[in-house]
Design a protein that fits this description.
single chain; alpha/beta; 18-stranded mixed sheet; 18 strands; globular; F-box domain-containing protein
Length: 648
Amino acid sequence: MPRHTGAMLDELPLEILTLIAHLLPISSLRALGLVSFRFYSALVPEIYRDLTFCARSEWALNILDIESFFLRHGSSRASSYLQYTKNLYIEAPIHLARFNRCAYYSIFRTAGLPQCSSKVGASDDATAHEHFLDDITDQLQLVFARLKPNSLRAFRWRLGICIPMGVLDQGGYLSRHQKSLSRLSLVTDGTCPQAWSHLDGLSELSCLKELEWEGIQHPAEVDSLQQCIHQNWSHLTSLSIGFVSSSNARTLCWDILGLRWPNPTFWGGATALPPLSTLLLSKVTLPSSLSPGGSSIFLNLRTLKLRDCPNQLRLLESLSRCQKPVQLEQFEACFDFQLHDPVDDHDFSGFVDFLLSFHGLKHLYLRLSNVPRSESRIPNAIRHHQPTLETFIYHERQLAPLDDDGLFEESRDVTPAWIPHLSIIIDPYKVTALALAATPSAAKLCLRLASTHSQLQLLHLRFSGPERIHRNIRREILACLSERQMGSPHVDYLSHCDNVSALLPSTECEYDSLFDDYSESLPGDDTVAQHAKMDCSASHTEAEEFLSFAEWVFGPCGIPSLQVLAFGDFSHEERYREQQFLIRRVDPARARGRNGADRCFGDTDRGGPLFEPAVETNIWTWDALSIDGPQFLSACPGGGLMESPYEM
């Protein structure tokens, strides 16, 4: 960065510096801070307003990067930075370990703790669990002790483990010292056999506007959630509840919404949550029928998301019969028609009737499994919302035989027969984001008729990650890109990994990990290499088909408005990291004016649009979109964030 940049920044008024801070990502702010001390000092509150501490490995969840934060900045400076923190996030990846996560911790770390030295190797699981949580508590206290009282506005617990004592229990830090919290997000381990319910302090939080809790299973957790909703019902605008499936859950779920309280005065005479505009229910057992009072909670919603909830069809049927129609702008449904409810024509009619019972839907996201094959009303139900529909997702799965006799079956992605007629079902001149479980060739067939005047900005070709968990889609596509850059359609691309890193912009370090994955995953010995070549040959056609589609869709005969093309499964962030790939459009003029133009692909000979690999976490991937790209890609996830061992 030029030296005079720092001097120029030092001369700008503080108001201008603040505006810059709101427009740039944190990484860019830190880079600018290196050349301007005044700029850095002025923007410290902005940089440390959102602070995330992580356990990098889901197999060592007690190794958080809190201590390294203090070592890196020094105790005094770290303490001063924490004074500016408004949003605190404690996170860990939730990929393979989706249940009983409290068992995954570093025994080497706990062995070094004085209070645990006499218990190392103890066979008592409860004792081990206790010390695991104590270790995390000690680390959290380093942060809590330096925060300003009542300064936090958001707290997210996404470790996927039990919350230790001293955080959200009665007298816990958040319950006592951060009562101004307006957003609370929890992901806990309902499957932990040693589950502790240190959550009875939730009811002490009385300013919550957004509440999320995934991984609920135990009665004590439901009681705590009930009390929290009761305490905040007059101003709660967003509520997200996710259960871990169990026989116990069916008797616990529905009462949490306050629709069947034995004492009507419990809610002050009300039976619904008046300000509630967003409701997400995952694996929540819904009532088989709704009373007039019970339906009122849904009538004022703007966003409703139902994911694999028993009695889901019956609820939608009840809502379709209400005298006052719902006012939804966004509806998301994930449902297996054979798993939960016995489906007959009457049941499915309720689902279709619900979509036909109201107008004004802007965002419709459907992931449906085992739809009755005789069902042909779905296209009409979707078309009913054509005048207002702006974003649309459709992902269908069906049971398919695994053997010639049909004795064994499993669910597979399917492309519905009506997809070729998509342009008359949705308005291609209005929809800005589209996701389909379809092959690139099928997608081209349904998009090409209206491609020229389409307003589409984001296109996602979906598939279910578990179906291809044995493959590295990312590596396959990067290999094909490397092959194309070298100009040889039959090159042995396993032997050219050194050229792969040249495909991506050197100025965006986030991309380095893409090709690190490719290089590191290459076989190390001749025998394994031969098998890898066979696997790559089998999957080469799909990668070529996707890249050919990318050349068309970003080319002169494709969709001029398209900015980002996604391929694969983006459920639960990077859970299926190797089964996802992103490409973004690059303007030719901009590409010629920067280093790395040779890393772009497309119709380069005729000066047409270019495209390049992209990463989801890079803010510039989405800068040309009018919608939230990552949120759209992660809608209708496959499976729950936390799962029961009996569901795997």
